[in-house]
Amino acid sequence: MIASVEDEQVVRLLPDKNHPVHKGFACHKGLNFVELHRDPDRINFPQARSNAKQAAVGEFEQLDWDTAAQAISKRLADLAEKYGSDALGMYVGNPSAFNSTGREAARRFARAVGVKYSFGSGTQDCSNKFAASEAMFGTANLHPIPDFKHTNYFLSIGSNPKISHVSFVHMTNPMATLRDIVARGGTVTHINPRKIESATPHTGEVVQIKPDTDVYFLAALIHEIKTQNLVDEAWLESRASNADALWQFVADYAPADVADVVGIDAETMRNLARDFANADGASVHMSTGANMGRQGTLAYWLVQMLSLITGNLGRKGGNIYSPGYFPAATVGKPKTDNPFFESPFGEMRRITGSLPGNLLAEHIEAGLVKGLICMSGNPILSMAGERRLREAFKKLELLVVVDIYPSATANLADYLLPATDWLERADVNSVSLGFQPEPYVQYTEAVVPPAFERKPEWWIFARLLQALGLPSELDQAQADPMAKIDRQLNNSDLSLAQLQAQPSHTITLPEPQPELLFDVAVQHEGAKVDCFPSLIARGAPACSRIFAELKAESADTLKLITLRTNYMVNSWMHNLPALKRDVALDNPLHMHPEDVARLGLADGTEVSVASDHGSIIATVKADEDLRQGVVAMTHGWGHANNPRLSLAHNHPGTNVNALLPTGAGSYDPLSNMSFMTGIPVSIRAA
Ligand SMILES: Nc1nc2c(c(=O)[nH]1)N[C@H]1C(S)=C(S)[C@@H](COP(=O)(O)OP(=O)(O)OC[C@H]3O[C@@H](n4cnc5c(=O)[nH]c(N)nc54)[C@H](O)[C@@H]3O)O[C@H]1N2
Ligand SMILES: Nc1nc2c(c(=O)[nH]1)N[C@H]1C(S)=C(S)[C@@H](COP(=O)(O)OP(=O)(O)OC[C@H]3O[C@@H](n4cnc5c(=O)[nH]c(N)nc54)[C@H](O)[C@@H]3O)O[C@H]1N2
Ligand SMILES: [Mo]
Predict the structure, then answer these.
(1) Taking the domains of the chain in order of start, what are their residue ranges?
(2) CB of 302 closer than 8 Å to CB of 130
(3) Is the dihedral of CA 510, 514, 519, 525 positive or negative?
(4) pLDDT (mean) for 319-339
(5) Which ligand lies nearest to the CA atom of residue 197 in the structure?
(6) Which pLDDT score is estimated for 335?
(7) What are phi and psi of 111, to 5 degrees?
(8) Separation of 674 CA from ligand 1 center, angstroms?
(9) 295 touches 547 (CB < 8 A)
(10) In CATH, what class is 554-685?
(11) In principle, which of 311, 318, 458, 584 could form an S-S bond with 481, CB 3.0–4.6 Å?
């Protein structure tokens, strides 16, 4: 985007029509960022809590940075003295992905002070992918992307590109991308319980699946392709190991065997499998809708297997590797063969450093985590079990929150530290590494100086380290928070200085070459993909058990799924007037009209929604787009307890995450990924 600045104030953001890749396409949430930048409810100064933690609403007094840094470092030192170095936890949330210097600083800080317990939003949206890739490919950082430009079949599972712009693929103008595939005679198929906004006559059809069953659907496709002899066996032999175990795994899941469980008739699955296998270049992408099911790791594995056995992995029009300015796949190798260890909560693993988010409350309740640092995350609203988390957070001896807003989590903090926003800090689009069909690297400058006492995270963490007497970036005469990125750029004979000199501060990189996937990215010996790694074998028994459970399930079980809209970003853009339109003033419970009638309800009825884990009150919204038996509600709402966000507080909505499971058994033990979709609920008039 282009920011117009007058008197050191951003007055306007407009799409950058000259951007070599995006060509003026920009998301309305980004374009409305000026509202966020100027929001009077932002956190502008360091603050310390001045009332009791038991109080419903936190009260805070303003500090200067020196006082705040001293006070926090003293509290950290006290904790270390009392409990040794092992009582600290950290939670790093989603916006850290779009904050290259902040993310790196949080990592460095954690290492320097010895944070033992790391948590993050990754176990709410994607940790299954890291776990599966690490096992199959020998690197957590390989996530082959669709070759949109050349593909003739695109299978999109559990995603809604029009609304969310996808995760793990940096898609420019998602709808135009889908339209182009259909326009050149290709096919786009969306696998989703809901007829999503992304599906139109020009952008593909939806096959409506039952929630939390993708793994069986994928197994059935592979079963059919194998049975029809559509596997390129010689190629598979040269590229992969353990294929026999894959065939054995899918043997129980022929299309006819799984049809009732997945809710798609066998013929549809058979046709889909054959069309995919026969297409001249077929690609597949799976996103949060399937990640959040109970078997996200297995589902992601089967997605890659579908691509592999049809000869589409690392092939033109299939799924490819796009290294961008740095081949991150080469640095994602697992540190050990067996990631599992004994913990107070049984056998456990870390995935890209993180423990299961759904055990965060337990860690505090058990007295393991006494102090927590939370950066750009809002676990109180974004994770399951708000009530339990609130009680746990009140038991913390120290909670430091680094945020731009007084979030629900910030409300419980002992110290609140004000971060800068995107207009006030420089950045490079490093999160896109590996995810770009059209690779480019861009430097975005700070277009205005930070308002008030807001500081970039790298500075905040460096200041804390300094106060702790530890080596700090700020010890240097000229701090260089982008040094690491510059080094990575140098790897491609680029530099920050070069970027800064370019129009749009952007350099486009060569188109990704399909052969790079095997030549560069796969890290297993001989660049062979493991078709049945031990991690997957570990998940196989649960896969058959859940299949039997699903088969036995009553036909009228209602299942809850998640529903992103254009008017929210997780829990945190709820204070922007531009996103609080009349269609988006709360988060009703979407239900199919037949289900509404069957339960004797009506559009607008107030209902009580209950699961095994909690209950909420919601308003029914009849919605024909849902599959029957599926209900949906948008997450990130529930601002009734937070008067500091004035607009959000006026339209609080309900936190649907009260219905999600938390604690033992509520996450995929292969990857720590939380179960967040396909949750059985019952509904009655309130
Ligand atoms: N407007 C907006 N954009 C966002 C965000 C936001 O909050 N608002 N969040 C951002 C973030 S953090 C992320 S991770 C990305 C996520 O990007 P996406 O993964 O594309 O997320 P969603 O749009 O929620 O799409 C998930 C889809 O999965 C479907 N689904 C639910 N359960 C199942 C299931 O069991 N199986 C299948 N096959 N489908 C299922 C849902 O109906 C939904 O359409 O979006 C990002 N973009
Ligand atoms: N039921 C249900 N729950 C879900 C999901 C779902 O689909 N359904 N989606 C899940 C997903 S995909 C995700 S990623 C997680 C998100 O989980 P979290 O990352 O914990 O939550 P967010 O709501 O994204 O909160 C981000 C916080 O970062 C702050 N912030 C924004 N920009 C900056 C910045 O530049 N610096 C700093 N320091 N702070 C900043 C915001 O004010 C906000 O408080 O939630 C998940 N929760
Ligand atoms: Mo996410």
Answers:
(1) 2-125+361-508, 145-320+525-536, 554-685
(2) no
(3) positive
(4) 93
(5) 1
(6) 85
(7) -65, -45
(8) 14
(9) no
(10) mainly beta
(11) 458
